[in-house]
Specification:
The complex is a heterodimer of chains A (195) and B (562).
Chain A (H helix, E strand, L loop, with lengths): L3 H12 L10 H26 L6 H36 L5 H5 L3 H20 L19 E6 L4 E4 L5 E4 L4 E5 H9 L3 E3 L3
Antiparallel strand pairs in A: 1-4, 1-5, 2-3
Helix pairs in contact in A: 1-2, 1-3, 2-3, 3-5
Chain B lengths: L5 H9 L4 E6 L2 H17 L3 E6 L2 H11 L5 E5 L7 H5 L6 E5 L2 E2 L3 H5 L4 E3 L12 H4 L4 H8 L7 H34 L2 E2 L3 H11 L5 H16 L5 H18 L16 E8 L9 H7 L1 H7 L4 H14 L3 H4 L8 H4 L2 H11 L6 E9 L3 E4 H12 L8 H11 L5 H27 L4 E2 L4 E4 L13 H18 L10 E8 L4 E7 L12 H12 L3 E2 L7 E5 L3 H12 L1
Parallel strand pairs in B: 1-2, 1-3, 3-4, 4-6, 12-13
Antiparallel strand pairs in B: 5-7, 8-9, 9-10, 11-12, 13-14, 14-16, 15-16
Helix pairs in contact in B: 2-9, 2-10, 9-10, 10-11, 10-18, 13-21, 18-19, 18-20, 19-20, 20-21, 22-23
Classes of the chains: A mainly alpha (195), B alpha/beta (562).
């Protein structure tokens, strides 16, 4: 059946929940393109015949042409949805992607990601009164400026932005500015205590 | 120096500063810490919390943090020792000490600049006057050196007389000072709970919440469960808290704008003092509560028979009392408290009910204050896994907040195990006559290798055990003199290092003022015999001792006290 492969690509993305990036299905895309090529060649041949008087072929030609257009739409949708997901990754993970994610991207997608990164960085540098502003921090306004954290490992001394140094020792609890802690929480050194 | 206005002199001072909280490991301190944390979180006071379990940890924690902080808040530790001498702080460091340990060290009381005591000035503090303890040193030395070469003989004689007079006066003053200090420091006892002090601070700032009130209640209940305060003091403090409870929870009775079932409500209860009975079966709770098991003498066959009689008298079928309390027949539970109290009176247990508070939230969750105390303290002294003390501290701290119900339930299970172990140990100690009268006090040593002995290497558990044992012993012995004696109990602490942990508790009489003289006595006995002891715990009456020094230490203690 025409179009079966193309819809399979869409389904594949649909099945992966939001924020996930499945591996780039190169094989599927190639098969769809081959199908399109075959359709196009058959159409070419039939058009030539139709010109020479076989008017009964016209409906078949129209049908093939619709299939062609549909396949194109599916592929574009597939690629576009992936781009949206990749863009979301930049906001979530920061500029360096984990290897597992990078592995799932095609070379073109990689290039697009780099360019996006560049333009975002240029923009962020240009705003904020000459100092630049990191837009990826605190996308939603935080409930409080400070959070309570617990130290899971002996980390040693840690300097916060007003110049004071605190000692992060296992099982000590601290009440610190939120944005200073986020990095350490991601690294698994601190744990956010919810009370 | 005592602070009178906590808000101005403490809270507003630390408001825009970074503060280090040093918290001792007991439930009262945990509750006080919770309240203070909640206050600091509303006002964005940046703090660091470090748990400390003894003097050594306090010292290392201080050394590690002294460069980064100026303000130190000590919760339930530090008042009964000269902090400046022990910690040698820089001059700009300020300590706020909120502690229940009494007597407060006299230097801490009269230091105006560095030590601020967040302590309720009860009438029983009896601090000696400044002039009796301290005296300017200048007048003794200088004058005598100014000898005039051309002085007359008479003048010289006068001077000699004057000087000897002064010296005599000084000696008298010294002796008097020793006497006053001895009287002051002789007895160790506990004052108003830290959690209540912190709640009072929250209240005068109008920042008190129902949660904080609950922590204050748990803190007070801890003092009662650990038998640290007199019954009188407990009832007075409960009264003070009850006013706050009715202020915060008046919306319950109101039908029209009653709160959702999920909101937390605190209610005053005149409930049975059976340990954990709402989460256990009535039978097991009766068997493992100190008061009932001692009064019924449950370690003997006769006692077991008496227990059966007791149930028969109440008209409760054995099948019902042996199943979980919340699955008991509702019809039986209706007048249960009155029924039990009435029968208990017949069996000579007159104080089975006690004023306390309970907390409800949701349909399922109801806890008595004592349940939470047992759960938190057994989490804190959990010996099942080889985790460090601070891990256990964190777990106990978590179990106090309502969002961590699983930890609380875990604690309740541990507490049940602990109570059973205490009961078994008490029974075996009494049946095998391990409690020996040494003259001035009773003595009991838990042998290595007895079951559950590891559990009792921690201070709170050991104190609880010795209090249960003393009470049971009083009921079991016929010797009238023994009933008035205090008790010393020892258990192995670390077998590899050959150390024992030893605790002394005051006699348990009706009129007992819970004042404990073992702290000084231990110190003196160790001094006299050169025993290798370690005063690491914040309670002076708990010490660590080398196994080999035990007997000579005990001999010294006996001769000292008799």
């Amino acid at each position: 059946m025409f179009g079966e492969k193309a819809i399979e690509l869409i389904r594949e993305l649909h099945r992966a929940s939001d924020g996930q990036l499945p591996a780039f299905n190169e094989d599927g895309i190639r098969q769809v393109l081959e199908e399109m090529k075959a359709l196009y060649e058959q159409n070419q041949a039939d058009v030539n015949e139709a010109k020479s008087g076989h008017s009964e072929l016209i409906s078949t030609i129209k049908f093939r042409h619709c299939s062609l257009l549909r396949n194109r739409r599916c592929i574009v949708a597939y690629l576009y949805d992936r781009l949206l997901r990749i863009r979301a990754l930049r906001w979530e993970y920061g500029s360096v992607l984990p290897n597992a994610v990078r592995f799932h991207m095609s070379a073109e997608e990689m290039e697009w990601f780099n360019q996006y990164k560049k333009s975002l960085a240029t923009y962020m540098r240009s705003i904020g009164g000459g100092e630049g502003l990191d837009l990826t921090q605190d996308i939603k306004p935080p409930k409080s400026l400070y959070i309570e954290v617990r130290c899971l490992k002996d980390y040693g001394e840690f300097e916060i932005d007003d110049g004071t140094i605190i000692l992060l020792k296992k099982n000590s609890q601290h009440f610190l500015p939120r944005w200073k802690c986020e990095q350490l929480i991601r690294q698994g050194i601190l744990e956010h205590v919810l009370s | 120096m005592f602070l009178s206005d906590f808000r101005k002199e403490f809270y507003e001072v630390v408001l825009n500063q970074r503060v280090l909280l040093l918290v001792a490991s007991d439930v009262d301190a945990l509750c006080a810490c919770k309240i203070l944390q909640a206050l600091f979180q509303c006002d964005h006071v940046q703090y660091t919390l470090v748990p400390v379990s003894g003097w050594q940890e306090l010292e290392t924690a201080f050394l590690e943090h002294k460069d980064q902080f100026q303000y130190f808040v000590l919760i339930n530790c530090g008042a009964n020792i000269d902090l400046l001498e022990v910690l040698q702080p820089e001059e700009d460091i300020i300590f706020f000490v909120c502690d229940t340990h009494r007597p407060i060290n006299i230097v801490n009381v009269y230091n105006e600049t560095q030590i601020k005591l967040l302590v309720k000035q009860d009438n029983d503090l009896e601090i000696p006057a400044y002039d009796d303890i301290f005296r300017d040193e200048e007048d003794s030395g200088n004058e005598s050196d100014e000898s005039e070469p051309s002085g007359k003989r008479q003048r010289f004689e006068e001077e000699v007389v004057e000087r000897t007079m002064k010296r005599r006066q000084r000696r008298e003053w010294e002796a008097r000072r020793q006497e006053i200090l001895f009287d002051y420091e002789q007895y160790e006892y506990h004052g108003t709970s830290c959690a209540m002090m912190m709640f009072e601070l929250a209240w005068i700032m109008s920042k008190d919440l129902n949660d904080m009130l609950w922590w204050a209640i748990v803190g007070l209940t801890d003092q009662w469960v650990q038998d640290k305060i007199t019954q009188m003091k407990y009832v007075t403090d409960i009264g003070a808290l009850q006013r706050h409870v009715s202020r915060h929870n008046h919306r319950n009775g109101d039908e029209e704008n009653s709160l959702s079932i999920d909101c937390m409500r605190i209610a005053f209860e005149y409930d049975l003092c059976l340990a954990l009975y709402q989460h256990w079966s009535l039978y097991e709770s009766l068997c493992n509560t100190c008061y009932t098991s001692a009064s019924l003498k449950l370690w003997s066959v006769q006692g077991q028979k008496k227990l059966q009689e007791f149930f028969a008298d109440m008209g409760l079928p054995l099948k019902q009392v042996k199943q979980k309390f919340h699955s008991m027949d509702i019809s039986l539970k209706e007048n249960l408290r009155e029924m039990i109290e009435e029968s208990a009176n017949k069996f000579g247990m007159k104080d089975l009910r006690v004023q306390t508070f309970s907390i409800h939230f949701g349909f399922k969750n109801k806890f008595l204050a004592s349940d939470v105390v047992y759960a938190a303290s057994s989490l804190m002294e959990n010996t099942e896994k080889d985790e460090s003390g601070t891990d256990n501290f964190i777990k106990a701290l978590d179990s106090l907040s309502r969002s961590n119900l699983d930890k609380l339930h875990q604690g309740l299970e541990l507490a049940k195990k602990q109570l059973c172990a205490i009961q078994r140990t008490v029974a075996s100690c009494i049946c095998t006559n391990l409690v020996i009268s040494q003259g001035p006090f009773l003595y009991c040593y838990l042998m290595e290798g007895t079951p559950d002995v590891k559990l009792f290497s921690r201070p709170i558990s050991l104190c609880l055990l010795s209090k249960y044992l003393l009470r049971s012993f009083i009921y079991s012995t016929k010797n009238k003199r023994c009933k008035l004696l205090p008790m010393v109990m020892a258990a192995p602490l670390d077998i590899e290092q050959g150390t024992v942990i030893m605790v002394g508790i005051p006699p348990q009489t009706e009129s007992s003022d819970k004042k404990n003289f073992f702290g000084r006595a231990f110190e003196k006995a160790a001094e006299n015999t050169n025993s290798r002891t370690l005063h690491n715990y914040f309670d002076m009456s708990i010490i660590e001792l080398k196994m080999e020094d035990r007997s000579k230490f005990l001999d010294a203690l006996i001769s000292l006290l008799s």
